[in-house]
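Record filed below.
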Amino acid sequence: MTNLVDWRSCYKCQTLFFDILPEKGACPAGQGHKAFGFAYSFPSDATETPTQQTNWRRCGNCCALFFDGFPEKGTCAAGGGHQASGYMCTVRHDGSGDAPTQQTNWRYCGNCYAMFFDGFPEKGTCAAGGGHQASGLTFVIDHWPDEPQVYMDWQELVTFDLVNSARQQNGSPDVSIDAALVGATRAHSQDLADHPGLKDQLWNGWPGHMGSDGSTPPDRIMRAVGISGSENVYFGWSSGNAPPPTPQDAFNWWMNEPAHRANLLDRNHTRAGLGTSYGPGTSPDGSPATYFYFTQDFID
């Protein structure tokens, strides 16, 4: 039996999705999913019992975990019904939960068939329209014992770790994660993804820093935390079978450009946020492409 890891909750739609791929499937709230909180895991191909249910599968189109036990396949955010892919997951419903390594309040949505977190008054965004509708059993899902990672997904966390490793090697103290700056950087990366022409607009001679509302890095950081700060932005593209840009690509570009390197290693910085997104665009040769955006804000 295989233990399936790298499942995360999407903070936009509240469904559980598979977070191991650079592309984040299709979120009913728009674009790809965005991970937050714990990293969850499931046993695969286990036998169904009175306290655990099988037939939960990953949708190969939207990346959400959905119940595959009915002829109908619910509603997928990518269109049509879900498409089962990969291993079969088994989820417990034994009445326990909220121990140090487990969380309850996970439910099946009777409209879209996805697993979603029902612990908030708001019910996320359902691919079938409106909020999710809890139905049937209440599930308990195991997670890694670590504390939730301030709404950051693995791409963001890896990039953040690369930055702190470089700071350590160059005699600068680590920057800590600031949740407000995470929100600001994610919003700017998403803004760039939603408005592809923004990446070509210049601010102080650099592309990618202008917001669709005319905001600049000092504006956005001031709105987020009440003080001024500085910003690094990287964007790259992939087309056809070319691999997408990685956290290492973003980090390497920042380190190889003197102004961005100086910003990244500034010893006065104490807190930072990092947010990523992706969206459609056109490659330099005029062909359709997917652009990936990395934004990091720093404050002293």
